[in-house]
Specification:
2 copies of one chain form a homodimer.
Chain A lengths: L18 H19 L6 H8 L3 H8 L2 H25 L6 H15 L2 H11 L22 H6 L1 H19 L7 H28 L6 H19 L3
Helix pairs in contact in A: 1-2, 2-3, 3-4, 4-5, 4-6, 5-9, 5-10, 8-9, 9-10
The structure holds a DNA duplex (30 and 30 nucleotides).
Chain lengths: 234, 234
DNA sequence: AGCCCTATTGACAATTTTGTAAATAGTGTT
DNA sequence: AACACTATTTACAAAATTGTCAATAGGGCT
């Protein structure tokens, strides 16, 4: 048959990435899909389609779907910690504490970290691992101790914040707070910030408040301020 | 050959449920799987296995997998609202507000509501969606218009709480707060309570605090108290 | 008892998804 | 230029998952 195939036009162009950048792109796409389409978006095909590559390529770089998900989990935590540390390091303009909470809240909600975290928690591949009743053993590997790292993030933050609180209390002529109270406040703050990042828009909406991007940012600022008055009471 | 099949022992025993109770059991099992195994547990086979029935039975009652998930979403909201309303109705011993927050937090975290809510939010079948067009009316599902109901839950709560705040402010000789401030506080409270319910254990753990059941309950009480002082400042 | 309705099941089809193996094609090296 | 290495793809196999359909059986009814 008159095969009208113009070999000239054929473009078997492949883009060849370095293993590192390939993994990065794939992880990014996976995170993107997760935050956009939810846990159901975490199919090899979906992710591959998002990058316009074949799913086999993903398997080549991560061995298996589970390998990818594990890497995604690890990567999310690494990224979160990196961004947080960077935020900690940056000089804050204005109220130091408020500004910090502000940044953290933004990091959590802006990039997909809140959803990534939620997914990890839900699918049981996160740091929490209540380890309640695992039917058939199986997953006994867990290459790295990410848990201890992240598990202690707030813990490592506690002394610093507590020192600030002690200073503050002295300045205000108040009695010195307990370290555990500071810990509780940190845990509470983390819960609130996470909740805001994950469900803030819904809650604003449910309260009858405007929930566009600007209002959301404004709300975040207000939340940061509110929490600050808890941690550093007048 | 020597087929040692004792027909006497054969137990083709089927349990025949009413459609209502079948749906209920299936929805419960689905919720159970979701909170236990995460979104990946939401396979027809998994749910069916949990109930020791065939997956066809589920399809019979819900038409399709999506039908089940929709029903699960609706049911979760209905249940949450029911439990909340019941909690609202019950007389509170002690601080009314604190007690209420307390109960809400417990409801959210104890039963799987927090995770159900999170799943809904992530998979995009939550209430934040159908917000706009409620007047469509085409879908005459018997259940209820849960979205609109819940979407305005905090909104409908606002006047009540605000009245309390006005009274409180007068008693304390403070200037009257704005209604939007009350709304923001409600939204904030919702975020915090949800965050605590969903990730409280992790956060406690991350802060270096004990995270057993008792400590968790204690922490919830403390959170409730803390929030109360925000809503009703001294 | 016999009959009807339908919840339930088992077997099967269709589609999706993960995984495997060999072929293809960039990229750097000699 | 020829070669080696391997990222990438294509084609295919295997498993899992959803959905269909006819047969089975539980429970209410007369």
């Amino acid at each position: 048959m008159s095969k009208t195939n113009f070999k000239i036009l054929e473009k078997p162009k492949r883009r060849r990435r370095t293993p590192a950048s390939a993994r990065r792109e794939i992880l990014d796409a996976a995170g993107r899909q997760l935050t956009k389409a939810g846990p159901d978006g975490l199919r090899l095909q979906t992710i591959a389609a998002d990058l316009a590559i074949s799913h086999s390529s993903i398997l080549h770089h991560f061995g298996s779907r589970d390998g990818l998900l594990d890497a995604l989990s690890k990567d999310a935590f690494a990224g979160l910690e990196r961004d947080l540390k960077q935020s900690f390091a940056q000089p804050s303009s204005g109220d130091p504490a408020t500004d910090l909470f502000d940044k953290i809240a933004e990091i959590l909600s802006e990039r997909g970290y809140a959803r990534l975290l939620a997914w990890q928690l839900m699918s049981g591949r996160g740091p929490g691992e209540s380890v309640a009743a695992d039917s058939a053993g199986g997953a006994a590997q867990s290459t790295v101790g990410d848990e201890s790292e992240t598990g202690g993030l707030l813990d490592r933050l506690a002394p610093t914040v507590h020192a600030l609180r002690l200073d503050h209390a002295r300045d205000q002529g108040m009695s010195a707070p307990e370290i555990d109270e500071t810990r509780r406040l940190l845990a509470f703050t983390a819960c609130a910030v996470f909740g805001e990042a994950f469900a803030g828009e819904l809650m604003l909406h449910a309260s009858g408040l405007p929930h566009d991007t600007d209002s959301r940012t404004q709300f975040r600022h207000w939340v940061a301020k509110t929490i600050e008055t808890q941690v550093f009471p007048d």
